[in-house]
Amino acid sequence: MMTLPVRDNTLDLIGNTPLVLLKGPSEAAGCEIWGKCEFANPGGSVKDRAALWIVRDAEARGELKPGGTVVEGTAGNTGIGLALVCNALGYRTIIVMPDNQSKEKMDTLRALGAELVLVPPTKFADCNHFVHTSRRLAEETDGAVWANQFDNTANRKAHIEGTAEEIWQQMEGRIDGFTCAVGTGGTFAGIGLGLKSHSEDTTIALTDPFGAALYSYYAEGELKSEGSSVAEGIGQGRITGNLEGAPVDTQFRVSDSEGLEWVARLLREEGLCLGLSSGINVAGAVKLGKQLGPDARVATILCDTGFRYLSTLYNADWLRSKDLPVFDWLDRA
């Protein structure tokens, strides 16, 4: 008789997500491509892990006290994770987000009881960038701590101690490569460091969207961006605190159109409704698999649910407005 898992509290629902063999990507790569189902976390994304570790770290250091507030700047998913974690632990949340992110993320944050502050999207060097705005709000709010997900290494510790160990165990130590895109760098660097601690032979590959600068940094030693992407939550123009010391063996660059092709195929052929960052990750995993050869076993991250992008990726008018291909079934709707 199968024993089903039982959890002592709701925060224990974060992590220990399933790993699934992806048929289409495996066939395209000529080897095994596995997806870590991070959309199965309570908040619907991989960012639940960072949220929990960041809050627990702030508590352990005595910075976050009962009745306190957590403030963060985010593209949305980390804010959602923080709101859930803070609700469970009795804290308030103030979330600062660029106003060009999906409506679903904004509505979700409000529904969870977070105080949502929207700001215009701007470059990191601008003092009004969402990250800098969140830092100032934390400084101005009594009893508040700033989560600082980009440079707070409690973020990547979540993946060193959690996600990487899960992947290693789920794949029984037989993993030849791992790849994903970078937002804060916590997931990529944490899993990379964690897997390398088990085997230096595991190839760690960066998969960068266009518009980000890390591909050129690791390929040529210069932070230089090219093109643009509509993907939310990924794409980085600097070496964050979480990225420092990350193992990078090779790197790929993936277009939105290529990522969307995998989003469409995974939904149509395998019943997985995912966001664009997951499609870009899978495209990178296919490239890495082809590079490693037919016996390779490659893992990547399925970052979040596509239900968070119904007004964008799954909306024909929005896709056309961005000059992106429209899924054929949306054209029929």
From TrEMBL:
Pathway involvement of the protein, from the record: Amino-acid biosynthesis
Instruction: Extract one GO BP annotation from the record.
Output: cysteine biosynthetic process from serine
What terms describe the molecular function in GO for this protein? Answer: transferase activity, transferring alkyl or aryl (other than methyl) groups
Keyword Transit peptide recorded: yes
Q: Which cofactor does it need?
A: pyridoxal 5'-phosphate
Give UniProt keywords alphabetically: Amino-acid biosynthesis, Pyridoxal phosphate, Transferase, Transit peptide
Q: Which PROSITE patterns match?
A: CYS_SYNTHASE (PS00901)
Check the record and name the SUPFAM superfamilies matching this protein.
Answer: Tryptophan synthase beta subunit-like PLP-dependent enzymes
Classify the source by domain of life. Bacteria
Residue ranges annotated as transmembrane are: none
Tryptophan synthase beta chain-like PALP domain: from which residue to which, for each copy?
A: 12-304
PANTHER family listed in its UniProt record: CYSTATHIONINE BETA-SYNTHASE
Per its record, how is this protein called by name? Answer: Cysteine synthase A
